[in-house]
Amino acid sequence: MADTLEFNEIYQEVKGSMNDGRLRLSRQGVIFKNSKTGKVDNIQASELAEGVWRRVALGHGLKLLTKNGHVYKYDGFRESEFDKLSDFFKAHYCLELAEKDLCVKGWNWGTVRFGGQLLSFDIGEQPVFEIPLSNVSQCTTGKNEVTLEFHQNDDAEVSLMEVRFYVPPTQEDGVDPVEAFAQNVLSKADVIQATGDAICIFRELQCLTPRGRYDIRIYPTFLHLHGKTFDYKIPYTTVLRLFLLPHKDQRQMFFVISLDPPIKQGQTRYHFLILLFSKDEDISLTLNMNEEEVEKRFEGRLTKNMSGSLYEMVSRVMKALVNRKITVPGNFQGHSGAQCITCSYKASSGLLYPLERGFIYVHKPPVHIRFDEISFVNFARGTTTTRSFDFEIETKQGTQYTFSSIEREEYGKLFDFVNAKKLNIKNRGLKEGMKQSYDEYADSDEDQHDAYLERMKEEGKIREENANDSSDGSGEETDSSFNPGEEDDDVAEEFDSNASASSSSGDGDSDREDKKPAKKAKIVKDRKPRKKQPESKKGKDPNAPKRPMSAYMLWLNASREKIKSDHPGISITDLSKKAGELWKAMSKEKKEEWDRKAEDARRDYEKAMKEYSVGSKADSHRGERSKKKKKKQEKQVKGKGDKKGATSKPSSSKSPAKGMSDSFKSKEFVSSDESSSAESKKEDSEDEGAASPAPSSEDSASGSD
User: Acidic residues bias located where (predicted)?
Assistant: First the structure.
C-alpha cells in the first residue's frame, strides 16, 4: 500500500464557506492546503480520534474529529474512493472509517448533543444537521428559546444568519435548561467579549488601511482597534500572516497584518491592516500581567517591562500572541539600494517588495501574491515611455496583476531575482530545471529559521554586504528589448524617410507603394530644418568679445581642481553639487572678493564691446556702399538690354507665333518701361555723384556694345 494519498479539488468547510485546495494523507497525518489563502492545516496522526464517511451535497465527504475536540470537514470525494481511504485509515491511523448517513425525515424536533466544538441535532441515532460552534457570533436567550447568530460569509451567495431552538421546560430544581444550553454554546463559540483589562495599549498609531489614527488594545484572544469613528475587533484566529517591511526612505517601517476573513465596514472589506511607524519613535511598555503569568503564557518571548522602537514592540507583542513568524524582505536589493521597487498598481503609486516566497505590494490596494500560485511573470514595455517598464504577474486562477512605471534601472535586479526563484517567464517558456523547488504542501511562510530574528541580530552586517554587492555589479545586465535606439533601427516609423526599406520586397504593387513613402519623406525634410532656421547663431561673430562670467563661475574655475583632489573619483554632477554647497557655506567677505573680480570682468567686457561695435559699424557701412554700387550696375545692364530688345521688334515680327508671344511688348508697355528706366537712371546718377565716382570709359563702351 502507498504511504501517501493525494486528492485535488477537495473542499474544506470553514465558517460556512467551501474553500478548495489539496489534501494529502501520509503516515504522519493529514495536510490540507487552501488554494486561495495558502494556509495549511496539519493534523497529526496521533491526534485523530474518529473518521466518518457520509454523503453530502458535493458527492461524498470526510469528517475528522481530533482528541482535543476540533472538527475538520472535507468534501468533494467520489464514492469509489471509500475503499481506498478506509484501508489507509486502518493501516496507518488504526481507525475504522465509519459510514453514517444524515437523517432526511424532515422532522423539526429531536435531541441536541454537544461534542467538542460541534452542536449536533439528532433524530434517534441519525444526525439531521451539525453546527460548528466556532461559526456562532452571538447567543441570546428568551423564556424557552435560545437564538444563535452566525458570522456573515462574504463568499457565499446565501448565508445562514440565525437559528432558534425551542427548549421545553423541565421539572428539575435548580437547573434552567435554557441557561445550560446557552452556556454550552458560549463556552465554544467565537464570541468576542472584552472582559477584563487589556494586556497593553498602544496609543494613536497611524493606520493606512483602514485609514486614520487608532488606539490598539491587546487582549488575550483578540485585537481591538479603537478610532474616533469606527471600532474593529480582530480575533487572532483570523490573522494569516505578519509582515515587517522597511520603507524606501529608510526612515519609516510598514507593519502589515493579513486577515482572513477580512474586517468589514459597510460594503468595504479590509484584507490587510497596515500600520506605519517612524524608526525614531521609541516606547517603554509595561504589560498588565504579573511576571509569573507573563513567563507562563509567553515562555520568555515577552517580559513584563520592555522598551525600544515602537514598531519593534508592536511586532514583538503581535508575534507572541498570534504565534506566527514575521515575514521580512529577503536578499533582494534594488538599483537604489532599497529592498523594494517603486511602481504603480491600478491608479496609485506604491512599493513592491520581492520576498523569499512571494511578492507584496503596499499600500493602496495591498496585494500579496505567493510564488506557488503564480503561473508566469512577464516584463513588458512601458506604455508611455521607454524609460520605464511594466512587471506583469498572472496566477494559476487567471488573475493578472500589472505593476507599471518601474524605473528601467531596476530591470536587471528584478530579472535576476525572478530567475533565481525559478519562476516561469513568459515567451521564454518553462525550461528543464526551472521547476519550483519548494514543497507544494509547505506553508508560504514556513522557513527553517526565523527571518525576523535573523534580521534583528545581523541587520548591520547584512546592510554592509548588500552595499558591497550593489557597488560591485549594479545594473550590468540590461534588457536589450527596451533600447530605443535599436527599436528605431528595426522598425521604420510612419514618417521616417527610410520607411520604404522596412516594407516587404515581394509585394505586387511596388510602384504604387513606393510613391507613398516618398511623399512622407518630403514632409519630414520640410519640417526638420525648421529647428535649425535661426541665423543669429550661425552668423555669430567669433571675434566678438565673450560675455563675462559670474562670481560663482570664476570661483568654480579656480577651485575645480582642488575639489577633485579632495574628493578623488567624484562625478561631474556630484562635483557641481559639492561646489554649490561650498559656495553656499562661504563667508560674505570671501564672496565679496569674487564679486569684485566679476565686476572688473564686466567693465572690461563693456569696454571691449564698445570698441567692437565701432569697428563693426564701419565695416557694415563699407558693405552697404559696395552693395549699392553692384545693384546700380545690374540695373544699368538691364535697362540697356530692354532698350535693345525694343529696337529689334520689327525684325522679330516674322518669327513663329510662339516667339512672338514670348518677346512681344505693346507700345504702351515699352514706352512706360523706357520712361521708368530713364527716371531710375537719373536717380542713380544723382546717387553716384554723392557716393561713388563716375563709371569708366570701359564700362560705357561695354554698355554701348
Answer: 474-496
Of 313, 458, 219, 242, the residue nearest 303 (C-alpha): 313
CB count, 10 Å around CB of 365? 15
Strand ranges for 101-167 from DSSP E: 111-115, 118-123, 126-132, 136-141, 145-150, 162-166
Cα separations in angstroms, 137 against 145, 198, 330: 17, 21, 39
Cα 113 from chain centroid?
A: 53
**pLDDT tens digits along 679-700:** 444 444 444 444 444 444 444 4
The answer to whether residue 672 scores a pLDDT higher than 60 is no
Beta bridge partners of 342: 351
Please, which residues bridge with residue 379 across strands?
391
How high is the pLDDT of residue 394? 92
Say how many Å lie between the first and final Cα of the chain, rounded. Answer: 127
Q: Is pLDDT above 60 for 129? A: yes
Q: How confident is the model at residue 486 (pLDDT cuts 50, 70, 90)?
A: very low
Nearest to 148, CA basis, from 176, 114, 124: 114
| Assigned CATH topology for domain 4-99 | PH-domain like (2.30.29)
C-alpha distances in Å from residue 687, one per residue of 645, 676, 680: 27, 17, 11
Topology given in CATH for the domain delimited by 200-327: PH-domain like (2.30.29)
Structural element, H or E, at residue 344: strand 341-345
For residue 633, pLDDT beyond 70: yes
DSSP state, residue 91: I
Helix 697-704, helix 588-647: angle, nearest 10: 50
C-alpha cell at 623: 558693405
* Alpha carbon distance 347, 402 (integer Å): 11
**Distance between CA atoms of residues 80 and 101, nearest Å:** 17
Q: Are 138 and 191 in contact (CB under 8 A)?
A: yes
- Kind of pairing between the strands at 400-407 and 48-56: unpaired
Strands of 67-211, DSSP E: 71-77, 97-99, 111-115, 118-123, 126-132, 136-141, 145-150, 162-166, 200-209
8 Å CB contact between 13 and 26: no
Please determine whether the domains at 200-327 and 341-421 fall in the same fold group of CATH.
Answer: yes
Residues 6+ apart with CB under 8 A from 571: none
Q: How confident is the model at residue 392 (pLDDT cuts 50, 70, 90)?
A: very high
Question: What pLDDT score does 236 carry?
Answer: 87
Amino acid at 492: A
Radius of gyration of the chain (CA): 45
pTM of the model: 0.52
Residue 366 confidence (pLDDT) above 60? yes
Dihedral, 271, 277, 283, 288 alpha carbons, nearest 10: -10
Which class is 341-421 in CATH? mainly beta
Instruction: Mark out the alpha helices in 59-176 (DSSP H runs).
Output: 82-88
208 closest CA partner among 254, 239, 154: 254
pLDDT at site 483: 42
> Which amino acid is located at 634 in the chain?
E
Enumerate the domain spans of the chain.
Answer: 4-99, 111-187, 200-327, 341-421, 550-557+589-606
